[in-house]
Amino acid sequence: MGSRIQVWLLIVFTQILFIAAQTNSDDLAALHAIKSSWQNLPPSWKGSDPCGSSWDGIACTNSHVTSIKLAGVLVSGSQFGDIASFTNLQFLDLSNNIGLKGTLPPSIGNLKNLTTLFFGPIPDSIGSLQLLVFLALNSNSFSGPIPPSIGNLLNLSWLDLSDNQLNGTIPVSSGPTPGLDMLIKAKHFVFDNNQLTGNIPRTLGLVQTLEMVRLDWNSLNGSVPLNLNNLTSVSELYLSNNKLTGPLPNLTGMNFLTYV
Ligand SMILES: *[C@@H]1O[C@H](CO)[C@@H](O)[C@H](O)[C@H]1NC(C)=O
Ligand SMILES: *[C@@H]1O[C@H](CO)[C@@H](O)[C@H](O)[C@H]1NC(C)=O
Ligand SMILES: *[C@@H]1O[C@H](CO)[C@@H](O)[C@H](O)[C@H]1NC(C)=O
Ligand SMILES: *[C@@H]1O[C@H](CO)[C@@H](O)[C@H](O)[C@H]1NC(C)=O
Ligand SMILES: *[C@@H]1O[C@H](CO)[C@@H](O)[C@H](O)[C@H]1NC(C)=O
Ligand SMILES: *[C@@H]1O[C@H](CO)[C@@H](O)[C@H](O)[C@H]1NC(C)=O
Fold it and tell me: Which of 59, 116, 188, 260 is least surrounded by Cβ atoms within 10 Å, i.e. has the fewest?
């Protein structure tokens, strides 16, 4: 008799839990995968209903995880296998976690609703995240080239790649190959403290929305394109500590300029 009651109670409780759960099962599985491979996650990451029981750093809308904010919380790990399962993710910030190593998988390019990404390095598929407005990958230890596909992020307003070990040239569009000169809504180009080489592309002068341009502390050479004075909204222009030669553009007309 007693054991029958226990079975009955178990069924009732299971159903209550099932009804109460507010987290989509794919998102739950993906969070559990993170939980089992990363260390130092917040203590509130307990139970089987992250949306319902408010796991720290996780925000949901309609049972789907829409935001993951784990910046500077000392998490560590190296596996990101399931992160692309969060189909409704809009905001992903994993920055400033020195123990978090590795690369986001190419499938990150499937997260079409992502507007904000703070973590890298990122694969070339970044170019399919059409809604990205903020891309901040600064202060990590990324090496290699700037992916030209970033030029496909036509809604990008803020691009901060500073303080890494990026090398190669600033990508410029040419035929079917995208480049940063296509980012015609960009306001902040911040690439300082890398190992970028080659010239400052003349086509940078086409991104007339720019308000801040930081190219300092790289190994850029050649002359400064004279059409940079086309960037009439720029208030801060940093070019120092490169190997640039020749005259500066005529800055008359750059009426917002407060720092060169
Ligand atoms: C993106 O979000 C909208 C709601 O904001 C939703 O209808 C749509 O299905 C989402 N897209 C994906 C790929 O999940
Ligand atoms: C830019 O974002 C808008 C929504 O804000 C979207 O409709 C549009 O497709 C995006 N543009 C590009 C080129 O992806
Ligand atoms: C960039 O750095 C990597 C090592 O991190 C090196 O293999 C590659 O040749 C460098 N590329 C350029 C263009 O300097
Ligand atoms: C200035 O920018 C506009 C808009 O992108 C462009 O049409 C024009 O050719 C540029 N002028 C120069 C000198 O680069
Ligand atoms: C700039 O540096 C590259 C090597 O990174 C070199 O091939 C090129 O000749 C240099 N150009 C100028 C104008 O100094
Ligand atoms: C700079 O441009 C302004 C107007 O655009 C012009 O009046 C001035 O003479 C130019 N200065 C130099 C040194 O070319």
Answer: 260
Tokens 């208030």 appear where? Answer: 235
Only one residue has tokens 């307990």, namely 46
Atom of ligand 5 nearest to the CA of 221: 1
CA of 206 to the centre of ligand 4 (A): 5
pLDDT tens for residues 72-106?
A: 899 999 888 778 899 999 999 887 787 888 778 88
As a whole number of angstroms, the distance between CA 180 and CA 175 comes to 13
Structural domains of the chain ordered from first start:
2-244 (3.80.10.10)
Q: For residues 80 and 103, is the Cβ–Cβ distance under 8 A?
A: yes
Cβ-Cβ contacts under 8 Å for 174 (sequence gap 6 or more) = none
- What is the position in ligand 1's atom list of the atom closest to the CA of 111? 13
The 3-class secondary structure across 88-123, one letter per residue, is CCCEEECCCCCCECCCCCHHHHHCCCCCEEECCCCC
Q: How far apart are CA 53 and CA 36, in angstroms?
A: 18
- Model pLDDT for residues 125-166, shown as the tens digit of each residue: 788 888 888 888 777 667 778 989 999 999 999 999 998 889
Instruction: Please answer whether residues 85 and 68 qualify as being in contact, where contact means their C-beta atoms are separated by less than 8 angstroms.
Output: no
Helix (H, G, I), strand (E, B) or coil at 237: strand
